[in-house]
Design the sequence.
């Protein structure tokens, strides 16, 4: 149980284009989903927290107009990187928290999406 | 400020035991997590401690002392496949996870 999927796993795009990443909780309802970014050999950095049906809460320094988050249902959240630039190239990971059978506060992670902006 | 400290890298021998320490200073405490992360992959959940003491799960055990702001992850009977990174994370009073930078474990035959 507690499976989280992410799609796509890898994407290469041209500078200036937008990229949408989907995060789904497959076997539980995720009341809260989180979006992280991780650069090589660095710690996970929380970008935003979203609760189903409400606006996402962004961390300081994260541009909400650039990283659009939609959490339309209890099993799906999307992150859209708008007008991507090379410095947005990173490993984007989502996690979900909900009634998954384990400790209530556990975040279960998707496999991540590697974004390369040329 | 909030801070999680864990060693950057540790080396151990196959078949042996290794203890990875984590100390923390956070605004509030709602539990401590250990995750395992293979290079280039997302973290996977290992353990959760919210009360003092030792939680054992197979070859892995996790210990917590809230008064000391301290935890450790103990790995027994080390296998080569355990050569990955281990992340310590604390949930603060706002139920946000504060992450350590991770400990890369190197296992030698």
Sequence:
């Amino acid at each position: 149980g507690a499976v989280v999927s992410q799609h796509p796993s890898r994407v290469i795009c041209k500078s200036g284009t937008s990229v949408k990443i989907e995060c789904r909780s497959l076997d539980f309802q995720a009341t809260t989903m989180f979006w992280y970014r991780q650069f090589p050999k660095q710690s996970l950095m929380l970008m935003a927290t979203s609760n189903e049906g409400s606006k996402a809460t962004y961390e300081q320094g994260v541009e909400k107009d650039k990283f659009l988050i939609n959490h339309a249902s209890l099993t799906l959240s999307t992150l859209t990187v708008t007008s991507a630039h090379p410095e947005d190239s990173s490993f984007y990971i989502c996690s979900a928290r909900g009634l998954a059978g384990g400790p209530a506060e556990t975040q279960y992670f998707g496999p991540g999406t590697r974004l390369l902006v040329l | 400020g909030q801070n999680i400290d864990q060693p950057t890298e540790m080396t151990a021998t196959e078949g042996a035991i290794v203890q990875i320490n984590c100390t923390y200073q956070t605004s509030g405490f709602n539990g401590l997590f250990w995750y395992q992360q293979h290079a280039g992959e997302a973290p996977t959940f290992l353990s959760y401690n919210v009360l003092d003491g030792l939680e054992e799960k197979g070859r892995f055990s996790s210990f917590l002392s809230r008064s000391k702001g301290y935890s450790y992850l103990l790995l027994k009977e080390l296998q080569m496949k355990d050569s990955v990174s281990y992340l310590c994370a604390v949930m603060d009073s706002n139920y946000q996870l504060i992450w350590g930078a991770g400990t890369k474990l190197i296992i030698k035959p």
User: Anything to note?
Assistant: Chain B has a mean pLDDT of 95. Chain B touches chain A through 21 residues (CB under 8 Å).
